[in-house]
């Protein structure tokens, strides 16, 4: 697929083929794509936790019921922010930078034939703190991305809305 096709093919998938193992090379390809994202002052204020353990996925669901698709997803990729890497350089841009990394990850997964669902955690600090404790990280869990072989093919929900565009010529 070309870039335009991948963007238009991406969907939020909430049901996956169970017991499907994603090859390590594909996981690394998705993570590499995420790390190719732009970041303020090239600070790359992110780290990633790949969760394949079913018990840990269940604990993530307990923290946030909005992640229930992890019941069938092959894995979760937790995207964590590192605001400390931007101190006194490019303060406070880490959420946007991590968002760019997440979008790259979603698009790469689509190109590889996987489905994804982006589940936000930050700025809901109660959930963030529980996920930090579960994953034993000090970075800030911004989102959990479910990844797996799609068991569904929902219609596109995105579309172009000319009324939301202002042109200044």
TrEMBL record:
| Enzyme Commission number, as recorded | 1.-.-.-
Domain Nitroreductase, which positions? 7-62, 91-149
Q: Name one GO molecular function term.
A: oxidoreductase activity
Which keywords label this protein? Answer: Flavoprotein, FMN, Oxidoreductase
The record's section on SUPFAM superfamilies has: FMN-dependent nitroreductase-like
Q: Which domain of life is it from?
A: Bacteria
A Pfam family matched in the record: Nitroreductase
Obligatory cofactor(s): FMN
The family note in this entry says: Belongs to the nitroreductase family.
Its name, as the record gives it, is NAD(P)H nitroreductase YodC
Q: What is the lineage of its organism?
A: Bacteria, Bacillati, Bacillota, Clostridia, Lachnospirales
């Amino acid at each position: 697929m070309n870039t335009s096709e991948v963007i238009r093919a991406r969907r939020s998938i909430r049901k996956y083929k169970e017991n499907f193992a994603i090859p390590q090379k594909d996981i690394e390809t998705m993570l590499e794509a995420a790390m190719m994202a732009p970041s303020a002052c090239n600070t790359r204020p992110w780290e990633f936790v790949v969760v394949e353990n079913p018990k840990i996925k269940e604990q993530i669901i307990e923290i946030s019921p909005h992640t229930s698709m992890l019941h069938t997803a092959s894995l979760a990729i937790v995207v964590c922010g590192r605001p400390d890497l931007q101190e006194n350089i490019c303060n406070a841009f880490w959420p946007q930078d991590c968002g760019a990394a997440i979008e790259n990850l979603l698009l790469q997964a689509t190109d590889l034939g996987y489905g994804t669902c982006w589940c936000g955690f930050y700025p809901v600090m109660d959930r963030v703190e529980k996920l930090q404790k579960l994953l034993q990280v000090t970075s800030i869990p911004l989102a959990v991305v479910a990844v797996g072989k799609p068991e569904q093919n929902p219609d596109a929900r995105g579309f172009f809305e000319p009324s939301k565009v202002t042109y200044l010529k």
